[in-house]
Each structure stands twice: as C-alpha cells, then as structure tokens.
User: Fold these one by one.
Assistant:
Number 1:
Amino acid sequence: VKQQGGNSLIFYTEDMNKETVRRLEIEGSLRKALEKDELFIAYQPIINTQSRELSTCEALLRWNHPELGLIPPTTFIPIAEETGMIHEIGYWVLKKACKQIKEWQNDGMPHLCVSVNVSAHQLQNNRFIDEVKSALEYSGLEARYLYLELTESAMLKYASDTIEMMRKLGELGVNISIDDFGTGYSSLSYLKNLPIHHLKIDRSFIQCFRMDSPDFAIVNAIMTMGHGLGLNIVAEGVETKDQLTLLTKIGCDFVQGYYVEKPMQPDQFYSWHQNMKVY
Ligand code: C2E
Ligand code: CA
Ligand code: CA
Ligand code: CA
C-alpha cells in the first residue's frame, strides 16, 4: 500500500505487479522479435458460400516467444500500438503476406486474395500509403488481390485523416473491409462516402446465430443494408454447419471460421488447399 498525498490510497496487488513485469518483458522482447524471426503469420481461409471455393485468406500475426511460448495478438498488438512498434510490425506483415499470396497464386491458387489487419495507428501515419505501394511492388501482387481490414472503431478516430487515407488506398486499387462490423457504435454515414468493399460481421453476432435468436434479426439487417450499398458480406467465427447453412440461405457472401478451418501455418495452409473438402 502506497500513500499518495491526502487520503487517497493506491493498492498494489501482487497480480498487478506480475502483470506490469510481464508487460515490460513483452515490450522489451517484442523489439527483438522481428530480428530474431519469432513472428510469423497464420492464414485462415475465407470461402465463398455459393461456390464453396476458397476466396481469400486472412493474415493473422503470431509470436512464438522463446520462453513464454505462443503469445496471442490480443496481448502484444496493444503493446505494439502503445510503443509505436506497430508501424514496423504492420509493414512487415503487409510485405510478408503479399509475398506469400503471390507465391501461392503462382503455385495453383491463381485468384487467391489476402486480407491484412491494419491498426488505426497505422492509418494515421502518412507513410502508410507508400508502405502499401512498396509491399505490392516488392511482392508483385496486384492491388485488387489485397484487402485491408479496418475496424469500425478506427473509422471514428481522427475522421478527416482517416477518410483521406482511405481515398488514397481506394485510388491505389486495394480493397477495404470493415472488420468487427456492428460493434463500433459509429455512425453509418461513412459507408456511403468511402471506398469500402466488404463488411465483416463480428463473431459475437454469429456465436448464437439461429433462426429464432435476436442475432438473426441483426445479421439479416446488416446483410440487407450491405447489399443495398453494393457491399459483400463476410461472416466471421462460423463454427457449425447449421450456421453456414443459415448464412448461405440468407445471402451471406463469404464465411470464415473454425467450421471451415482454423488459422494455419503457411505449409499447412498449402496442403489444406490441395486436399480441400466440400463444405
Ligand atoms: P480479428 O481481426 O477479428 O481476427 C479474427 C480472430 O478470430 C482471430 O483471432 C481468429 O483466429 C479468430 N477466429 C477465427 N475463426 C474463429 C471461430 O470460428 N471461432 C473463434 N472463437 N475464433 C475464431 P486471433 O488470430 O487471435 O487474432 C485476434 C485479433 O488480433 C484479430 O482479431 C486482430 O484484431 C488482431 N490481429 C491479428 N493479426 C494482426 C495484425 O497483423 N495486425 C493487427 N493490427 N492486428 C492483428
Ligand atoms: Ca480481422
Ligand atoms: Ca474481426
Ligand atoms: Ca475481432
């Protein structure tokens, strides 16, 4: 217990100390993780509900820490954002993912697209547009095969800069997906003014998605609105055959989730595709 002027007290529990130490450890070793080749990308398939064919894969960052083991992105991405490392890491992901997809395109998946998560912090950086250009040039991937996933909450922050950046990205020919759609409390007006191509319905609406659930009404409404605006709809977190069937029935364009496959290491993804079953 520490005295802090007046009579306000701050309690330091052992847990908080442990958490702080862990954070500092992570921060220190994240700086070296890129050089030491501890980061890698897992790829999760996104399939077309009509053709049931592979359409896209989402690039999901992984960190294999020598002592702590596999650290989830939800733990280290926020630290990378706070420390500014997200710029370097984000650029690395972009280049690596574009290169990988170009290789797979040359190797039997000619129309495969890739979807890369972009942090709101990256979007605020003026250099971001040049980084996207460089990643495309470096990999030889055509812009139309690249999707950038921005969260709905990223649209809220720093609105005018964000809009300007998205316009430039649109001119470059890359596609934009709104990730975690339905969770951001933002106004919907940006949907009509910006170059957006996909809406990804957040997993939380799919989890208990059944004909008789409140989520059904929400998902249906998103579908109608999205299609009315000429957007494609992706449902994420699809875990059962029933969810896939119902989503297909109401016109959802793409699905992603454990029912199809979990995120996979590159070589696993490649062999999965070669033996792809009918869903
Ligand atoms: P997200 O963009 O919403 O990614 C989807 C998350 O849902 C992934 O978690 C994925 O593994 C998980 N998922 C996919 N299908 C299912 C399913 O059927 N059931 C369940 N329960 N989960 C499913 P992951 O890989 O742990 O990533 C978590 C978050 O970390 C991502 O959420 C994204 O916000 C962030 N992230 C991951 N990679 C990057 C990156 O390269 N850059 C940035 N800025 N953020 C990233
Ligand atoms: Ca995502
Ligand atoms: Ca998501
Ligand atoms: Ca999410």
Number 2:
Amino acid sequence: MTIQWFPGHMTRARREIQEKLKLIDVVIELLDARLPLSSRNPMIDEILQGKPRMIVLNKADLADPAVTEKWVTYFKNKGILAFPVDAATGTRVQDIPAQAKVLFHDKIQKQISKGINPRAIRGLIVGIPNVGKSTLINKLAGKAIAATGDRPGVTKGQQWIKIGKEMELLDTPGILWPKFEDQEVGYRLAVTGAIKEQVIDIAEVAFYAVKYLTQYYWDTLQERFDLSKKPENFDTPDEVVEVMEEIGRKRGCIVSGGRVDLEKASGIILRELRAGKLGRISMEVPLSFML
Ligand code: G4P
C-alpha cells in the first residue's frame, strides 16, 4: 500500500479518530517494534486528548529483542505502558485485555463496591498504515473481521468485537499518518515496507539499509550474504555501494558487461530484510541509550 497523505486526509483521519474516542475507554497505540518513533504519528498526544492508552510494539518477531526491551523502558520512563507483541502469530496479544484490566482496576473495583456490574472496557486500535492493525484485530477476535489495507474515509457500520469477558474493541481501527517531514524517518519506514518503493527509489532505500546494517549489524549482514570485508568507513558512499555490489554478485544480479544490477540487488536485500531472513533487526534505538 502506498501512503499518500495530504492535509485534507490528515484532517479527516484526525476527525474520524476523535469521533471514535468518544465511544472508548482506552487507546491501543500500535507501533512497529523495529522503529517505534518513526512509526509514531507526530501529533498523537494532541489527537488523543489525554485518553488512557497503552503502546503495543508490534512485529516484535522481526525486531532485535534487546532493543525492544530498551523501548519498553523508554516509554515506561515517560509514564506510558508499553509491551511487545507479534500480531501475526498472536504471541502476547492477550496482554492487551490483561493490561487494560490493570489500567482500569481501581475504576472497576469502585463500581463493584457500589454494586454496579462493570461493563466491558472499550478499546480502539490506532496506528499508521501497515503497522498491523487489521492483523491484530483479527487475531484478538479469533476470526477475520478487519480487512487488511483499510483506508481512512472508507466508513462502514462500526461494531464491537468481544475480547474475552472484560474487553471489547471497535472493529475499525483509527488510521494515522506517519511523520513525513524527516527524510531519515521516510527511509526507515521504506526499509521496513511501510512506504512502498514507488515513492522512494529502491536503490536509495537499500543503500540506507546497507549503510545502517554495516554500522550496527555487520556480522549478520556478512553472514547472510557471505561478504568478504567490512567497509572501513560506512560514511563513505562508495564503500557502501561496494557492499551492495558484492551482494549483487553473490546473488547473480549481473547485467551485460559484468556490471552489477543494483536495482535487482536492492530488491533482494530489502525483501530478505523485511522477511526477517537476516535475523531480528531494529532500525531505531532510543536516543538515551546511544549516549
Ligand atoms: P494495517 O491494518 O495496519 O494496515 O496492517 P496489516 O494488518 O494489513 O498488516 C500489514 C502487514 O504486516 C501484513 O503483511 C501482515 O501480515 C504483517 N504483520 C502484521 N503483524 C505482524 C507481526 O506481528 N509480525 C510480522 N512479521 N508481520 C506482521 P502482508 O499481508 O504480507 O502485507 P504486505 O507485506 O504485502 O504489505
């Protein structure tokens, strides 16, 4: 799916979410565990207007577990509950209703003490395109409810999906726009496949990925593609291109005259990275841990 957000889209998306906020108790903010800040909407705090929320770091199966732990701590230090899940297999998705119960424990107890039978906690999943909202809704529901690839503005009758006895979810997620202003963010989103290559040149995206992997995950990259030597300086573009060319040669991406077809090599690198073939890789580390 290509992300194309214009000011009109953003206004409508924001309005749609704010309409839904009136119906719910808690927001489940879905981020990509590999790049939690880049996959976060820049105006989320303003949009949520103080609604209770939890951050769910999805696709944790593809992220570096040690880095994901750092993100959990990062959000905890900001007073926000965060935890990793893998919506595709369902790993830890049941933490969502369990944590909602913890968040509303006092309120529920108060109601019980007054003799009121507490109603189910109502949740809304929000996140940028491709972060896994539909996959998560379907997994929690235990059946196909949400069509993957939902778009803002495409409205249908809203329904509540029961998640166990104590929680229910709106069946349509809130769709947010990512941060486009920052080029680095755009590259990270493109590397993970949240922005398709039609928007950014595939070789440029692969260049960004190889440069990053050379710097932070060299051993993994070397092992996957059987590379000969680590570039002395990953900041030198020619050296990064040499790594890409070596990958191309190893994978038979050769055109007439023995030249490496960089575009084809780029496709292979990105496909394998996104599919987790290089192992679990995070594209972003909390700044506080880099110092
Ligand atoms: P969205 O509603 O937020 O737009 O996302 P959606 O559920 O459609 O998920 C986008 C892609 O991410 C899907 O792949 C889905 O299978 C994958 N996905 C969702 N959650 C997880 C997870 O926890 N781990 C992994 N590894 N993948 C996950 P797809 O159908 O192949 O789409 P695409 O890759 O062709 O875009």
